[in-house]
From TrEMBL:
This is Phytochrome-like protein cph1. Residues 24-279 form the EAL domain. Residues 279-293 are annotated as: Disordered.
Length: 293
């Protein structure tokens, strides 16, 4: 595994290596327990900013796992494992319930923030996501839900007919908005993009992060914005880390933006302070840049 080489050529172990010593079986057992009991799982919320009104209008819910022995684990460390073991369906359903409950609590305090959540292909295509969401929305008295479901191109292309059917029901029965996440990195057919019930495309951050210095990246971003607008979709840029990128995106007519420059993923309580203006946009850094990466 990735033991770092020191200058002298001998290897030494980084603290992260502790994690790799955990056997896969142990990690799976711990993840199963966490998902089944919701114990140790947490949501961080990252603000989404509207470039026209210059206001925060929503947040994206991102799963975190306070692992018993390893601080905070980010999704890159366990989502694939959850997908491989089938735990992802329960995990995504847990996130859905937490996000909807958070929306309910915020509304009760007069805070109207759309909450976006990520849904894996499995969770979208297996089981009855549309029925579950409708039940939850009814139970919590949220209609329209004020929720956005983010799916990747891969999820849509795996079974476009079924995906379209589920997304259509989510929209019709619960007023869910639908976003295509990480847009530009997958292989979505433009023909399907036209036919799928989608409200928003999120430009993947690989194109956004260097767009100020790299004309080709800027061209890709501009092209996605134009494509999205021609299809009547809202376009969101993710991974906005600097003011310059934000300005360029504004000038290009991008609708919304998300990224460390605007706000890092944070606990729900800090989010409200951020959107209500305390502290300003940049500079809130409850999650250190390198948290458990
Ligand atoms: P995503 O949905 O594309 O989420 C955006 C990721 O980019 C988040 O990482 C966020 O912290 C990070 N990010 C935001 N702004 C910036 C920035 O300016 N610079 C950089 N370098 N990164 C930024 P995170 O939280 O580690 O999540 C990674 C991925 O894990 C997500 O990508 C999503 O695909 C997946 N994920 C997160 N939560 C869930 C969940 O509840 N269910 C499922 N199925 N997947 C999830
Ligand atoms: Mg997302
Ligand atoms: Mg994304
Ligand atoms: Mg992603």
């Amino acid at each position: 595994y990735a033991a770092k080489r020191s200058g002298g050529g001998s290897t030494f172990y980084t603290p992260e290596l502790d994690d790799t010593l955990l056997s896969r079986a142990t990690l799976i057992a711990q993840l199963r327990r966490a998902v089944e009991e919701g114990d140790g799982l947490d949501l961080a919320f990252q603000p989404k900013f509207d470039l026209r009104s210059r206001r925060f209008f929503g947040v994206e819910a991102l799963i975190r796992w306070r692992h018993p022995a390893h601080n905070l684990l980010l999704p890159d460390r366990f989502i694939t494992l959850a997908e491989e073991t089938g735990l992802i369906t329960s995990l995504d359903r847990w996130v859905l319930r937490q996000a909807a409950s958070q929306r309910r609590r915020w509304l009760a305090r007069g805070v109207d923030l759309d909450i976006a959540l990520n849904v894996s292909p499995h969770s979208l295509l297996e089981g009855d996501l549309a029925g579950d969401v409708a039940g939850l929305v009814r139970e919590l008295g949220l209609m329209p839900a004020g929720l956005t479901i983010e799916v990747t191109e891969g999820a849509l292309m795996r079974d476009p007919e079924r995906a379209a059917e589920v997304l259509r029901r989510l929209r019709d029965e619960s007023g869910i908005r639908v976003a295509i996440d990480d847009f530009g990195t997958g292989y979505s057919s433009l023909a399907y993009l036209k036919r799928l019930p989608v409200d928003e495309v999120k430009i993947d951050r690989v194109f956004v992060k260097d767009m100020v210095a790299e004309p080709r990246d800027a061209s890709i971003v501009r092209t996605i914005i134009e494509l999205g607008h021609n299809l009547g979709l809202a376009v969101v840029a993710e991974g906005v880390e600097h003011a310059e990128a934000l300005d360029r995106l504004s000038a290009m007519g991008c609708d919304q933006a998300q990224g460390f420059h605007l706000g890092r993923p944070s606990p729900a309580s800090m989010l409200v302070e951020l959107v209500e203006g305390a502290g300003g946009a940049a500079g809130t850094s409850p999650e250190p840049a390198m948290a458990a990466r």
